[in-house]
Amino acid sequence: MASPLATDSPEEESTDVPEVTQTETRTAVSRLRAKNTAPGPDGVPGRALVLALKELEPQLRGLFTACLEQGQFPSVWKEGRLVLLRKEGRPADSPSAYRPIVLLDEAGKFLERIIADRLVSHLCREGPDLDENQFGFRRGRSTIDAITRVRALAEETVSRGGVVLALSSPTPSTPYPGVVFGRR
Fold it and tell me: What are the tens digits of pLDDT across the range 59-106?
């Protein structure tokens, strides 16, 4: 006869979230050391957080751990300040003369970096096995690597007399993003 424990409740997967470590926090903040970027809506520049890290680190780690445990990303960190940067050589009255950027709070960027690093580590450690052509969420791969790969595929196809067609999506909702290679 089966044990009552085996039939009373299904086995549950552990949902424990590891605490944010000092290493994770320092890795996330290390990228700011060389940057001198404009602050987000909270007005706190990243350099200020870098300088105050020694004093703030335990509180930041506790806050980030609580966010991960509760599955919450504070809505205030999702708010940004839109800034238009003028492009040189374009008439000021033309919309194409400006490049929009959104400034976000550095604390939210820290948490995003910790989450992204955990995702990459998980994918490297446990999978799923990613295709060789997967460049996102892979250590040692960059946008430049992806562009180089697309260029090499295009050159190879054209050298064999093929035709290359690249489709690009301006928005994530467009159903046909990607690159298609074919032969004549």
Answer: 999 999 999 999 999 999 999 999 999 999 999 898 889 999 999 998
What Å distances lie between residue 134 and 35, 39, 112, 142, 155, CA to CA? 29, 33, 21, 10, 20
Q: What is the pLDDT of residue 173?
A: 52
Beta carbons of 60 and 26 less than 8 angstroms apart: no
- Beta carbons of 80 and 100 less than 8 angstroms apart: no
The conformation of residue 37, written as its DSSP 8-state character, comes to P
- Indicate the pTM of the whole model: 0.67
| Strand spans (E) along the chain | 80-86, 98-104, 163-167, 178-182
Greatest mean pLDDT among 98-107, 140-149, 167-176: 98-107
The closest of 86, 100, 98, 102 to 39, measured between CA atoms, is 102
Nearest-angstrom CA–CA distance, 75 and 91 = 37
Neighbours of 141 (CB within 10 A): 14
